[in-house]
Design brief:
This is EAL domain-containing protein. The protein is an alpha/beta fold and 283 residues long. It is 50% helix and 18% strand. The chain contains eleven helices and nine strands. The longest helix has 35 residues. Bound molecules: ligand C2E and magnesium ion (3 copies).
C-alpha cells in the first residue's frame, strides 16, 4: 500500500511541478514584457524619526501592474527576476528612477535626508555594480550622502571578497548602507563590527510580535545591538501607536509603517509631506 501511495504522490508532485514551471515561464515572459512596456513603477514609503515624528526619508518599493490591472507584489516576481538575471537591469532602473525622484523632491523644497533603495544580492555582486551606482548619481545629480542602499544578509555574498570590496567602495563615496530584514537571515555579527554598515532594519515580523507577551525581546535585542555597535536602528511595519511608543521607549531611532504612511505614488508622497507639515502625526 505504501508503495502505491508513494508512487501516486510522486506522480502528483511531478505533474504539479510541471504546471508550476510553465506558470513561472509565462510569468517570466510577462515580467520581461512589463519591464519593456514600462508597466513597472515605484512607490515610496515615508520614514520618520521616532522621537520627533520628523520626516527623514523614504524607501522605494517596486510595483508591477499586469495587463489585467492586477497588482503583482514584489515577493512574487523579484525572486524570478533574480533567477533570470533581469534583476540587474531592473535594479539599475530602480536606482536611477529613485535618484531622479529624490532630486525632484529636493528641487521642490522637500528635503528628506535620504532615499533608501533595495538592492538584490544578485545585483550587488555584479562587477559593474559600483559603476552603475556612480552613473545613477552623476546623471541625476544626487549627492551620495542622500542615498542609502538596503541589502539583506545572505549566505551567498556575506564574507566574499566582492561583498566587502563593494561595501568599502560605497562607503568611500559617502553612501549609506542598511541591513534589511535584520535577524531573519544568516547573521554574522563579525561583519557588522568590521564592515562599513550604517543602519540595522528591524524586520516587520519582530515589530508585529511586540504586541504579544515576551514579544518585544527581539526588537529590543536588535536595538541594543545596533546602539552598542554605533549603528542607527530603523523599524519597519509600524502599524499602531503602541508599536511606535514601544519602539521609541526601547531606543529605536527611526521607523516606517502603515500607521505612519503607506507606500505612495510620487505625487501622493508630496501631498503627504505637506499634510505632515501642517498637522504632524502624534509622537
Ligand atoms: P522590504 O524591503 O523589507 O520592504 C518592506 C515591505 O513591508 C514592503 O512590502 C512594504 O510595503 C511593507 N510594509 C511596510 N510597512 C508595513 C506595515 O505597516 N504593514 C505591512 N503589512 N506591511 C508593511 P513590499 O513593497 O511588498 O516589498 C516586499 C519586498 O520586496 C521588500 O521587502 C523587498 O525585499 C522587495 N523589494 C521591493 N522593491 C524592491 C526593489 O526595487 N528591488 C529589490 N531588489 N527588491 C525589492
Ligand atoms: Mg527594504
Ligand atoms: Mg525590510
Ligand atoms: Mg521585510
Amino acid at each position: 500500500r505504501s508503495k502505491t501511495m508513494q508512487r501516486g504522490s510522486f506522480t502528483v508532485f511531478t505533474r504539479k511541478m510541471g504546471i508550476e514551471i510553465r506558470e513561472r515561464a509565462t510569468l517570466m515572459q510577462n515580467l520581461h514584457r512589463a519591464f519593456d512596456a514600462e508597466r513597472l513603477f515605484l512607490m515610496y514609503q515615508p520614514q520618520i524619526e521616532l522621537n520627533s515624528g520628523r520626516f527623514i526619508g523614504m524607501e522605494a518599493l517596486i510595483r508591477w501592474r499586469s495587463d489585467e490591472g492586477e497588482m503583482i507584489p514584489p515577493v512574487d516576481f523579484i525572486p524570478l527576476a533574480e533567477y533570470s538575471g533581469l534583476i540587474v537591469s531592473l535594479g539599475a532602473w530602480v536606482l536611477r528612477t529613485a535618484c531622479f525622484y529624490m532630486v525632484r523632491l529636493q528641487k521642490a523644497g522637500i528635503a528628506p535626508l535620504r532615499i533608501a533603495i533595495n538592492v538584490s544580492v544578485v545585483q550587488f555582486r555584479q562587477e559593474d555594480f559600483i559603476l552603475n551606482v556612480k552613473k545613477a548619481l552623476d546623471d541625476s545629480g544626487l549627492n551620495p550622502q542622500h542615498l542609502e542602499l538596503e541589502i539583506t544578509e545572505s549566505v551567498t555574498v556575506a564574507g566574499t571578497a566582492i561583498f566587502e570590496q563593494h561595501l568599502h567602495a560605497l562607503k568611500k563615496m559617502g553612501i549609506q548602507i542598511a541591513i534589511d530584514d535584520f535577524g531573519t537571515g544568516f547573521s554574522s555579527l563579525s561583519y557588522l563590527d568590521k564592515l562599513p554598515v550604517d543602519r540595522l532594519k528591524i524586520d516587520r515580523a519582530f515589530v508585529t510580535q511586540i504586541d504579544t507577551p515576551g514579544g518585544p525581546r527581539i526588537a529590543e535585542l536588535i536595538t541594543q545591538l545596533g546602539r552598542k555597535l554605533g549603528l542607527a536602528v530603523i523599524a519597519e511595519g509600524i502599524e499602531t501607536q503602541q508599536h511606535w511608543d514601544k519602539l521609541k521607549a526601547m531606543g529605536c531611532h527611526e521607523g516606517q509603517g502603515f500607521f505612519i504612511g503607506r507606500p505612495m505614488l510620487e505625487d501622493d508622497l508630496i501631498a503627504w509631506v505637506a499634510q505632515q507639515q501642517a498637522k504632524p502625526i502624534s509622537c
